Design the sequence.
């Protein structure tokens, strides 16, 4: 998939619009790539702004809150 990381600004803009439509109504969006979560955090969500989190942050919060066990 081409996008911002590949220097494809036009494609990245189209993906931003599609993602904003798909995820704009949610409270948070979780990405499995730090680069992607950074781009998602900068989106213009056209209204409601979900919290954008990297999956490692979600796991760390779950451990911290006791929802996931530690060894």
Sequence:
């Amino acid at each position: 998939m081409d996008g911002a990381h590949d220097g494809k600004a036009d494609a990245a803009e189209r993906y931003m619009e599609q993602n904003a439509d798909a995820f704009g109504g949610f409270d948070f969006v979780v990405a499995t790539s730090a680069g992607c979560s950074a781009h998602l955090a900068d989106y213009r969500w056209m209204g409601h702004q979900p919290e954008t989190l990297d999956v490692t942050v979600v796991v760390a919060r779950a451990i911290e809150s006791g929802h996931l066990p530690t060894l």
In short: The longest strand covers residues 28-31. The first helix runs from residue 9 to 23.
